[in-house]
Amino acid sequence: MNVVASTGGAGVRIEVDDIQSGALHPRPMPYVGRFVFLRVDDRHAGRSLLRRLLPAVEGGFASVDPSRDAWVAVAFTYQGLRALGVPQESLDSFPLAFRQGMAARAALIGDVGESAPDHWEPPFGTGEVHIALSALSPDVGRLEKALERARVAYQDTPGVQVIWRQEVRQLPTGRTTFGFRDGISHPNIEGLGLPGSNPREAPLKAGEFILGYPDETGNLPPMPSPDMLGRNGTYAAVRKIHTKVAAWRRYLRANTSSAQEETLLAAKMVGRWPSGAPLTLSPERDDPELGADPRRNNDFLYREHDDRGFRCPAGAHIRRTNPRDATIIGDARMHRLIRRGTSYGPPLPGGVVEDDGADRGLIGVFIGAHIERQFEFIKAEWVNDGNFIGFPGEQDPIAGHHGGTGSVTIPEQPIRRRLQNLPSFVVTRGGEYCFVPGLRALRWLAEQED
Prior knowledge:
iron, heme binding, oxidoreductase, 4-stranded antiparallel beta sheet, 19% strand
């Protein structure tokens, strides 16, 4: 394969054609998708599977061909690399967080109580998840075509078992189970040929997202060895999140006196209106035209437009997880992630405030070159604590695990409002840390010998 390189900053060359297309590409809109977890019971079978999978996995994304707007990605847990027979010296070169796995680090990232690993859906956290396949496409036809080779490969390989499968799709409303447009933000990554969604965001160094290139510190991120294995790879935190939509609606209704107030309170907690229009640009009312315009719906900064949070509260979900240029403790650019959420399960019918028992929520994939500095930092410091914005003890109103005792501050004039007794609106059903290798690394893994 010819590796096509593009020029990043300071003469850095990015080998885009060696990076899995499905790893970093923004999610299509609309979308359908599938996640499949595999267990490798025999390393020779696992390597055989990889050799058969290789034709289904493409690299490069500098230009988008609508007729091929579907991507298959393959990733491995630490236990999966062990099951494939990767040499111990290479296994030991991976970062501690990846080697330990998400379940072992649950308390650090706030997966406690009903979200603790003891309550996770099998096979999450059991050590049996070895290979994670994912595919996203704008429609079922292209999804099935993209997955055809992969499906034949894992179905016809003895010694490899399918142990979990999850279908995802955009809901008929085009929004999340909570009723909000998502998939709006994507970082501007230097040298990749993928434009960011915020024209005001200065490009981030490729090493924040891809191994083998300088990151925002000017250094190379720690990379597993040999270089053939690590270069052009990245890490993905994969999580299944159940959403308590009925509890969300009940809380909004109990703390407002009209439907209009419900919508405003929900927007203050999220940071956007249901249409996707940001509060920072439209503080008084929803603006569906703004929300639907990809040229404008992410075109803002906080310090410039709303540094004190009177429009979008400092504790709102989107502002916590991506503070942009807001005045905070720390440097937001050091903790940027690619976030890709996809919905599963049926929507709760409009107006229903009692739980119907259905499993619904999102499969979240959080991608970056530094598990601890990016995903774990955001979860521990920004989602589950408020020190960085001056509200110690307050958690993310949407993603925090409140247990009925949470609170959130909404700046208002003349007196700020403080919501009390927040329940948890989401429950972690499982998670895994995965390594997403480059295409040459996939070949290296497939060609390992005992």
